[in-house]
Amino acid sequence: PVILLTSLSNPEDVINGLVCGANNFIVKPFEKRFLLSRIRYILINRELRQNVSSQAGIEIYFRDKRYFLSNERVQMIDLLLSTYEAAIQKNRDFEKVNQELEQTKDELETRVKERTAELLKSNVQLQKEIEERKHIEKALRRSENELAIKNQISQAFTTSPGDELFRNISQIFLNALKSKHGILGYINEDGDMVCPSLTENVWEAGKIPDKDIIFRRKSWPHSWGRAINEMKILFFNEPFLVPEGHIKITGALIVPIIYDGRAIGNLLVGNKEIGDFGQSDVRLMASIASHLAPLLNARLLRDKQEKKRKTLENQLRHTQKMEAIGTLAGGIAHDFNNILTSLLGFTQLIMMDVKKGTKTEEDLQEVYKSGLRAKELVRQILTFARKSEEVLMSIRLDLIVKEVLKFIRSSIPANIDIRDNIQSKSLVMANATQIHQVVMNLCTNASHAMNSEGGVLEITLKDIVVDHSQTQFLDGITPGEFIELTVSDTGSGIPDAILDRIFEPYFTTKNIEEGTGMGLALVQGIVKDAKGVIKVESQINQGTTFKIFFPVTNKKKSSSSEIKTELVKGKGHILVVDDEEPIIKLSKRFLEGYGYTVTTASDPEEALLIFSKNANDFDAVITDLTMPKMNGDRLIKKIQDIRPGIPCVLCTGYSRESNRNPESNGATATLIKPVGQNKLVSTIQHLLE
User: Fold this and answer.
1) CA distance to 141, 348, 522, per residue, from 682 (Å)
2) SS3 for 294?
3) Has residue 493 got a pLDDT over 80?
4) Alpha-carbon distances, residue 257 vs 24, 223, 299, 300, 305 (angstroms)
5) Is 478 left (phi over 0), alpha (psi -120 to 50) or beta?
6) CA atoms within 13 A on the CB side of 409
7) Which of 514, 672, 650 is nearest to 578 (CA)?
8) How far apart are the first and last CA of the chain?
9) Do residues 292 and 255 make contact, with C-beta atoms less than 8 angstroms apart?
10) Nearest residue to 534 via CA among 410, 445, 450
């Protein structure tokens, strides 16, 4: 038996092998067990075939060639069996390969899935890293942009002039948000929003004057008030209702500037050029506001301190000016009082020699009254210059008000109608000169308020009773009887914003050459000294009304220096010392007219020499205070060192010595120039008694 081993790479080779007598064939590659099985099969069939005698043959064609196979049927069967078995083997091999392929396919698919999953995971991670990188790059760009904006703002604070700072900062954040309009403001001490500047196109469109714009808290728009009061950022992208003539607002972003837990300012941008306001704009503006807050707060504190410094400087200059005026007024008052002393004294002397009831006597009376008014005028000057201390006494307000009305009628413009309604004649404890100053000041202010267009100035004086229900509106004054002094005008009125400040020292709305800001402050001080209360009501373009409430008194108090003594002839030797010859001459004539012997001296050293030689010959000494070489108080001390206890009268034109205890300067009595000669004589009579 022959077994053909073939790979079946060529079917013709298999057929040729069978033609040559091969009994079977095995396809390569093959397994050992398969070869052994085939050999065993052939050997067994060989034994079986030896008993078979029939032969068969067959001619076949394959690929255009003729082949002849033995007619032995056994060969044919073996061929078929070999072919069948080969087919089976091939099928098994195919199945095995197919299984291997399926397994490989599954493994490959598994690996592909795993790899795909890994790739997907890697891709997701990569996308995440890309997004994170983009976010970081975006945040970095945003941070760089914010840093650049903050640097611009910081630089603006250090380089911008004061009047350009707010406008420059406004332009910086408007450029950052690409918006057309904006406002940067701060909250002042009164709680109002102050906008030192608006963006340039807002100024042009609104035709706003070049000065700070102040928005009163009570008039803030709802969006402003809410953003600041709630300290939260607000924005909207729809048209905003605005008054007629206002710039149309299509969208706005409002950011409060918060420092140390309180709102100190406000950022507002409107009408974004491209797109709407969004969260990125909110973040940017919040960052800008956070950076701006400490800078703005420091600037406001600096401005406040600068304002306080300037106020103190102005107060110091004013104080120095007042001191200079006081010094000047004191000197003028001294000389003027000497003149008035001579004027009044010699007028009295002439009146003593003139027949009563004649025209000459009437003219002299007018001269004397004018001298007395001049005396009061000097007292007012000294009071204003703080060179005298005024004593409170019971006075009638109606007399003072009428005197002021007479005076102002000639000084107030003719287009102002003065009306008075004086109903009270009650007494109050006050100083007549100061009350005169109060009424004069209020009337002058009223006149200024109506100066351009004229109007009505009305002064009312009446008695009222204040009960407990009214005291809360009058600063808690004690209920009782009061005189109500009302001064009203129909002028321009006082704005609500400054109504609470009009009594502050140095606060004024007038030009520097028109007022010092001290008038109403002095008025309030005088009223308080008199235990009174002052109230003010005002409406714009309707006028202002001041009401002063003085408590009524039943006391009658006269000047402590006034001596009620009837003038009679006296006797005694008087030494009169004054550096003014007319006063010496006048005093000598008056005293000698009432029986006194008078020795005079115009030099204090000469007077001291005269007294030291004949100390016991003198009964009293009258001396001026301010003299060359030696003041009168020093002269009195030297005289009393020579002769203790001798009565001494000190005459002064402006010194505070007039209101001090005479014993403090050694004087037995002190008289204020101009001294009426009756007063001089009565004082000497009182001392010698």
Assistant:
1) 98, 15, 36
2) helix
3) yes
4) 106, 15, 14, 13, 21
5) beta
6) 10
7) 650
8) 191
9) no
10) 445
pLDDT of residue 658: 47
Nearest to 267 by CA among 257, 282, 259, 277: 257
Beta-carbon-side half-sphere exposure of residue 611 (alpha carbons within 13 Å): 31
Burial annotation 560-583 (CB, 10 A radius, 16+ → b, else e): eeeeeeeeeebebebbbbbbbeeb
What secondary structure does DSSP assign to 107-136, as a single string?
HHHHHHHHHHHHHHHHHHHHHHHHHHHHHH
Order across the sheet with 179-187: list the strands. Answer: 213-215, 193-198, 179-187, 262-272, 252-259, 234-236
- The whole-angstrom separation of Cα 549 and Cα 462 is 10
DSSP secondary structure string, 484-508? EEEEEE-SS---HHHHTTTTSTT--
Q: For the chain, percent helix, then strand, then coil, each to nearest 5?
A: 50, 20, 30
Strands in 161-282 per DSSP E: 179-187, 193-198, 213-215, 234-236, 252-259, 262-272
Six-digit token pair at 143? Answer: 């941070």
Gap between the Cα atoms of 360 and 157, Å rounded: 78
45 backbone dihedrals φ, ψ, rounded to 5° = -70, -25
Is the peptide bond preceding residue 674 cis, with omega within 30 degrees of 0? Answer: yes
Non-local CB neighbours of 533 within 8 Å, separated by 6+ positions: 474, 475, 477, 527, 548, 549
pLDDT > 90 fraction of the chain, expressed in percent and rounded: 15
> Which two tokens mark 385?
């210059």
Q: Can you list the alpha helix ranges (DSSP code H) found in 385-431? A: 397-408
Cβ proximity of 485 and 541 under 8 Å: no
Which of 182 and 533 is assigned the larger pLDDT? Answer: 533
In sequence order, the 6+-apart residues with CB closer than 8 A to the CB of 434 are: 383, 390, 526, 529, 530
Rounded Cα distance between 596 and 639, Å, is: 20
Q: Is residue 546 a contact partner of residue 487, using CB atoms and an 8 Å limit?
A: yes
280 pLDDT above the threshold of 50: yes
Neighbours of 558 (CB within 10 A): 9
Q: Cα(139)–Cα(141) distance, rounded to whole angstroms?
A: 5
- Provide the 8-state DSSP code for 163: T
| Residue 663 identity (one-letter amino acid) | E
Using CA atoms of 465, 468, 471, 473 in order, give the dihedral in degrees to the nearest 10: -100
Q: What is the mean pLDDT of residues 241-256?
A: 75
Tell me the β-bridge partners of 585.
none
Type of residue numbered 166: F
Answer yes or no: is pLDDT of 49 > 80: no
Cβ neighbors of 101 (< 8 A, separation 6 or more) are: none
DSSP-derived letter for residue 249 is B
Phi, psi of 386 (to 5 degrees): 60, 35
Distances (CA, A) of 296 to 61, 177, 181, 263, 289: 112, 20, 21, 11, 10
CB-based burial of residue 388 (10 Å sphere; 0-12 exposed, 13-18 middle, 19+ buried)?
buried
What is the pLDDT confidence band of residue 662, given thresholds at 50, 70 and 90? very low
